[in-house]
Structures are given as C-alpha cells and as structure tokens.
Amino acid sequence: MPDPHTPKQGTYLGFDYGEKHIGVAVGQRLTCTSNGLATIPTLGKLARWEAIGRLVDAWQPCGLVVGLSYQEDGTENPITPQILKFSRQLEGRFRLPVYTMDETLSTVESKSLFYQSRAKHSTGFATVRDILAAQLILQSWLEHIAQQERQKNG
C-alpha cells in the first residue's frame, strides 16, 4: 500500500512567491525535471488567482510546491508569513496538496544562471529571475523526493 504522505507521480507546479511577482514552473516526478512557465504580478488578488487557476487547469497538477524563505541562520524572513498564507490559500482554492521547499539559495542561484546565460528577455531581469527561482525550487524538491525514495527503497 502506498504511503499517503509520499507525493504521487505526475505533474507539479512550483511557485516562487514574492511581494511583487510570483514565479511559476512546471515539473514531472517521473523525469525529475522542471521548466519555468510564467511570472504573475501579485497586485490585484483576483487577477493573480485567475492566472494561477488557468495554469492549474492547463497542467492538471497532482500537487503544488512553494518555496519557503528563511534567513541564513534558519530564522524566518519578513515575507515567510505571507508565503505560508499563500500556501494555505493555494491548498484551499485548488484542493491540491501543497509542499514547501527551502528556497534560501534559489534567488541567488537564479541570478547566477541569468548572468551566465546572458539571457535577453523583453520583460527584464526580475521576470526571468522569478521564473528561474520557481524552476530551481521545483527542481530541488523533485530531486529531494527522488532521493528520499531511493533511500527508502535501499
């Protein structure tokens, strides 16, 4: 009998919640890969939820992953309570399991990836950074789950 706490195989959406934008990525447990999808402005709550709803409808995920922000010493960032509220709202609105993943290094890593690739994007650095951060959050979570399964199965 499968463990009810183990995430299902399938598609997941990952979110990098910020005060101005939410980066979104999509990934697969089977392939353990993720790709950036979109950046959603946080202003206008109705528009934000409609945009997320369209992505949920299009991708039909079996779960959602949200990056959780902490200081280097492990204490909460000022935005952490907002991220936790966003996570609860996602779960309530879409009736999907929501998993969190420490995002401490995702923004720094996304900046590095952005500059390494010298990406030229018409909507600017912040948009690309948010998408890359969401992709890194989701990718880290997928790899973490795969590693847990390998350890469990010996």
From TrEMBL:
Q: Which SMART domains match?
A: YqgFc (SM00732)
What are the EC numbers? 3.1.-.-
Per UniProt, subcellular location reads as:
Cytoplasm
The keyword Metal-binding appears for this protein: no
Gene3D superfamilies recorded: YqgF/RNase H-like domain (3.30.420.140)
* NCBIfam families (alphabetical): RNAse_H_YqgF (TIGR00250)
Q: What is this protein called?
A: Putative pre-16S rRNA nuclease
**Source organism of this protein record:** Candidatus Methylumidiphilus alinenensis
Taxonomic placement: Bacteria, Pseudomonadati, Pseudomonadota, Gammaproteobacteria, Methylococcales
